[in-house]
Write a structure and sequence with these properties.
By secondary structure, the protein is an alpha/beta fold. Helices cover 44% and strands 25% of the residues.
């Protein structure tokens, strides 16, 4: 067992011992989460929670309209998605006002193919130069891609970048970078990191950065709010926070 594994096991046991004490039967909760970096992040964290507690988690990943419909329909015990979506659900009373928790903050970064030179993007001017120098620029139609459009508008290079854009659909931007289709690419760092064959250069600089917070919310119609709360508590444990940091998330 690695040092981190030992640390995680001890920490989880300590954080969750009071939660699971006296729980005679394992429960199963239904979770709905958004896409982006969450399938990879939750794909690591859920098995840890299940192993630590004996509970089971059924998770699906959907867009905001479908998530809202599931919450309003009373079919889920826990929602994990963009904070603004959770806040809207709370405003409407579909998530309890005291039943939402900020879990992680995702940032937008850039990557190149593994082994390729890494341009300096430490300032807005250097980022501008890197984007102009690249033969092709990959981005998605999601939050990071929409943010890039505002960035290149601010930098005065919107037309130049759009003319050589590789816009990905149904696949991560990293895949287009790894294949050589895009010389440089922009996406949430937590989405770039799991993709093999690429090197993450770093975050967008200073005022050009966009923070994308993700929160958990327990719906007012949740069938098992107690187990949902146990999972939220786990997601704020030291063991879970270590995973989030390794995945490229900032912590609140």
């Amino acid at each position: 067992m690695t040092a981190w594994s030992k640390f995680a096991a001890v920490t989880m046991a300590g954080c969750l011992s009071m939660l699971i004490a006296g729980t005679a039967n394992a429960a199963e909760i239904t979770v709905v989460a958004s896409g982006g970096p969450l399938p990879d992040v939750m794909g690591t964290l859920i098995p840890m929670f299940e192993k630590a507690t004996g509970n089971k988690v059924k998770i699906s990943h959907k867009g905001a309209p479908a998530i809202t419909a599931d919450v309003k329909g009373g079919t889920v015990d826990l929602v994990i998605t963009n904070t603004e979506v959770v806040d809207e659900l709370a405003k409407g009373g579909d998530v309890g006002a005291n039943a939402k928790t900020l879990l992680m903050i995702s940032k937008v970064g850039l990557a190149v193919k593994a082994g390729a030179p890494k341009p300096d993007i430490s300032t807005p001017d250097k980022l501008k130069a890197a984007l102009l120098a690249a033969k092709t620029v990959g981005y998605s139609q999601g939050a990071s891609g929409q943010h890039l459009l505002t960035v290149i508008q601010k930098l005065g290079i919107a037309d130049a970048v759009k003319a050589k854009a590789i816009i990905t659909q149904g696949r991560p931007v990293g895949a287009a970078i790894a294949s050589g289709e895009a010389e440089i690419g922009v996406q949430q760092i937590a989405e770039l990191r799991p993709v093999p064959g690429i090197d993450v250069i770093g975050e967008m600089p200073g005022e050009l950065q966009k923070q994308i917070p993700y929160s958990a919310g327990i719906p007012a119609k949740a069938k098992d709010g107690t187990t949902a709360q146990a999972m939220v508590t786990f997601l704020r444990s030291e063991a879970a926070l270590e995973v989030l940091k390794r995945k490229g998330m900032d912590l609140p």
